Each structure stands twice: as C-alpha cells, then as structure tokens.
Amino acid sequence: MDEELKGLFTPLPEVSRRAFVVTSLTAGFAFAVEPIQEPTTITTSSEGLIAGEVKIPVSDGEIPAYRAMPAKGRNFPVVLVVQEIFGVHEHIKDICRRLAKQGYLAIAAEMYARQGDVSKLERNQIMSVVSKVPDSQVMADLDATAAWARKNSGHASKLAITGFCWGGRIVWLYAAHNPTLKAGIAWYGRLTGSKTELQPGHPLDMVKSINAPILGLYGGADSGIPNETVEQMQKALKDGGKPSEIKLYPDTPHAFHADYRPSYRKEQAQDGWARLLEWLKKNLA
Asked: Cβ neighbours of residue 283 under 8 Å, at least 6 residues apart?
C-alpha cells in the first residue's frame, strides 16, 4: 500500500476471510432490476480495453472489483465507480467500460462483500443487506481500491469518483474523507437523513470538509430526494465557498441515467454524461 495513503484508512474489526459473503461479482444484471429494458440498454464493447474482475486487498481479506482501462498505455487517471443499491452488476461494469473508452482506469469494488450478496435478492429484500454496511467500511474499501489502482497503471495524483443512487451519497462522503481526491460526480445521491451508528453523518453535514469539486446531478421529480434538500445543499456549497455545482433536471425521476430501467431519460442522461466527462477533463488535467 502507498505510504501516503496508510493514514487515510479507517480501521475495521478483524474478520476471517471466510466471513466475506461476496467473493466474485455477479454475471449480468441483478435479479431485482429485471425485466431489463432492452431497447434503451447500452452495452459497451471491451474491444481495445483490459476489462474484467480483479481482487482488492483490504484490511481483513479481499473484495472483488470490476476494472476497465485502455489496453495500451499506463498512468491513466483513476475513476472510482460506486454502485447503486443493486451491487456491481452489468450496468456498473458498463459504466466502467464507457469511462475506459475515454482514457480512464475505472474501477468498481463490491461495497457489500462482507454483508451479503444482493444480486439474487428481490428489491424489497436488498435493504436488509445494505442497512448493515457501515460508512467507515465503505471509505476504507474505497481507499484500498484507490491504492490498488495506483499500483496497477493508475496515475498517482489523478483520482476521481462517481456514484449512482446509494453510490451518489458515497461520492459526497468520500470527498470529505479523502484529501487527495481531485473530483467527484454524484448522481442522485441522498443528501440528508437520520443519523445512526453506521451512518453518523450525511452530505449536508459534511460540506465544510469537502476536499474536491463535486458535480451533483439530480432529478426534480425524484420522490426520494426532495428538491428542498438539493437547494439546501446548493446554498451550503455556495456559503462554504466550495467549487462544486448541482444540476437539477426539471420533471426528471430518480435513476434517470439507468438505461436498463423504466426510469431512464435519454436526454437528461446524455446531458449528465457530457457534464461528467467535462468535469473530469477540467479537474484531472
């Protein structure tokens, strides 16, 4: 592990390697998201890429991750990709390949590896796993993933993060956690909520600690994220002098970038992706 990153790791309780529930990534899409919306689902080829599963060493074992990067070259800017609540399934893998086609090393580590495999669960069962995942664990595993990427063709000082839904909230938290982060793009991540032992704070609580410019992409018709909280975040960022931006798309639902789901909105998704690429280009130069 890079010496400069050791201090960023959050200690976790000792767990036997046999305690890891998820040791390999699921193939295809998560059961909870079926049926897949075939007409709109985007599939990105791995031609010209190195793409596939890798293992990330963490403090108590290994977690699986999907990595994609150009087949030729090295020292690629790194983008950590954080899953929706459905885990690292085919859509998240495709996001990694899309980023790799743009010259990035994109990597998505399975954040629930210790708590459970959600790939075969019904939608109403998934939260029983997700609710057991500590924020501290996620931060430590992302640190470990960044360290792995640096040793495997990633650029030592060009680190960004993007995440969707559950992962969108994590983007904001990681920007407050890792002072080496250069940029983040949060897609419709929850900004506030009840505080618990496992989730002691939320993005609105951490604005003062945000270390990197974050682009937030939100839907104005998202029933789970009230516009009021988005506006509160916009004000807090402005008042705190943070070089971050939030784009709120009118009449747009949650998960508008998820091309495999009925919530997909092509125009907003394409606009958000273009903004993501520009944000990365500007901040990882």
From this structure: 160, 182, 183, 212, 213
Residue 155 is a catalytic residue:
no
CA distances to 67, 139, 229, 231 from 246, rounded to whole Å, are: 28, 23, 12, 9
The DSSP code for 33 is G
Domains assigned to the chain: 3-283 (3.40.50.1820)
165 classed as catalytic: yes
User: What is the helix (H) or strand (E) element at residue 63, kind and residue range?
Assistant: strand 61-70
pTM over 0.90? The answer is yes
Which position among 165, 177, 202, 257 bears the catalytic label?
Answer: 165
Tokens standing for 77? 């800017």
pLDDT tens digits, one per residue of 101-116: 999 999 999 999 999 9
What is the b/e burial string over 8-22, where b = at least 16 CB atoms within 10 angstroms of the residue's CB? Answer: bbeeeeeeeeeebeb
**Catalytic residue list contains 222:** yes
